Amino acid sequence: MTKTALITGVTGQDGSYLSEFLLARGYEVHGIIRRSSVDYRERIAHLEGTPHFHLHYADMSDSMSLVKLVGKVQPDEIYNLAAQSHVQVSFDAPEFTADVDAVGVLRILEAVRTNHLEKTCKIYQASTSELYGKVEEVPQSETTPFHPYSPYAVAKLYGYWIIKEYREAYDMFCCSGILFNHESERRGETFVTRKITLAAARIAQGKQDCLYLGNLDSLRDWGYAKDYVECMWLILQHETPEDFVIATGVQHSVREFATLAFHHAGIELRWEGEGVNEKGIVERVNELTNERVKVGDVVVAVSPDFYRPTDVVNLLGDPSKAKRELGWNPQTTSFEQLVELMVAHDMKKVAADDAAAEIRKVNLAEFLEKGIDK
Ligand code: NAP
Ligand code: GDD
Fold this sequence. Notes:
With about 375 residues, the chain is an alpha/beta fold. It is built from eleven helices and 15 strands. α1 (about 15-25) crosses α7 (about 225-235). It is globular and about 65 Å long. The structure holds NADP nicotinamide-adenine-dinucleotide phosphate and guanosine-5'-diphosphate-alpha-D-mannose (GDD). NADP nicotinamide-adenine-dinucleotide phosphate binds near residues 10, 15, 59 and 82.
């Protein structure tokens, strides 16, 4: 029997990988897109027009559009991935973040109930390690208390609890995957990993002088997005509806990520100074590095513009339950492989783009992440 899946957030990093994953398993895949003035759907462009892949206009802030769409598609599984997903942006747009990331989850649940699908339609909710926030223990597991530490995390906490509530109140098969950071070649360009891999590639090719970052000491448990979407599906195939932590169980700092990314771009870094005065300085370059890059150049600096009012600094997940009950392997792609594949991708991408366009992109990305008032 062909299954039908509805994915919110289909144009995002995870939505694109999940679409590929489900299509390869014979699913009929429906995705929600929202209207914008530019039709920019790079991550799913290769799927558009293929059989079994369908796109529909709707919006997480518009209940009626969701009710009508769920009724039309009659999904067996809903993957609710849509969100304002940038933590720093949630401080600038907290109300919008709450509407989409918190009330949006409720709208999906009610759309399923309104269409009387609560006994047949399973729901996956994209929950997050940000719930642990100002962490109360390390590593974090399904039993660790939550302490959300941003408007984004507080909104996602509502999503987590409303899923649990509907599971208990209406006996619905709805679950949260508490996913730790997962990255890829398709990661948004203002998240720290992709910002670093793109900048390392641009600097190595003489198209950018310096990368400005915020808190270099922040610790994350970084996995590969392509490995993580499998878990979303496994969670919905599990016999009983339960919540799972999905993580690698390995932790690195932003500084370590940058050091390794520059290494793969052909530049060895040494670090000098502390806090806002810390600098990443070129120690050695390989023979492919652009001649503009000299030993002793400062290529990474700290800008307080990228500090957050409250920052989550010690995330490390314990994926034992997912390993045991879902049979999932958290080490399919290692941290080292992840950094290498992201840099290899961005070295090719930057080489293919012209220099002027690259410089415009650096300026735009910094402007967008800092916020227009800074
Ligand atoms: P992403 O790349 O930022 O994608 C977010 C998606 O949500 C995009 O398709 C976006 O559409 C859509 N969206 C935003 N607002 C919407 C609205 N009002 N109506 C309809 N769609 C809307 O995020 P991701 O990294 O793939 O993450 C997927 C989900 O997992 C998110 O819920 C995120 O919070 C959560 N999560 C991510 C991670 C991670 O490390 N990646 C970890 C834990 C949890 P547009 O393309 O139109 O903007
Ligand atoms: N974005 C960004 N830019 N972060 C920086 C920078 C910078 O220049 N410099 C240091 N950081 C630090 C942040 O302060 C944070 O502690 C860490 O790097 C990771 O930041 P992001 O890559 O923006 O990700 P995030 O951890 O805040 O949020 C991501 O992961 C969550 C799961 O833990 C997002 O994908 C969320 O949607 C997701 O829920």
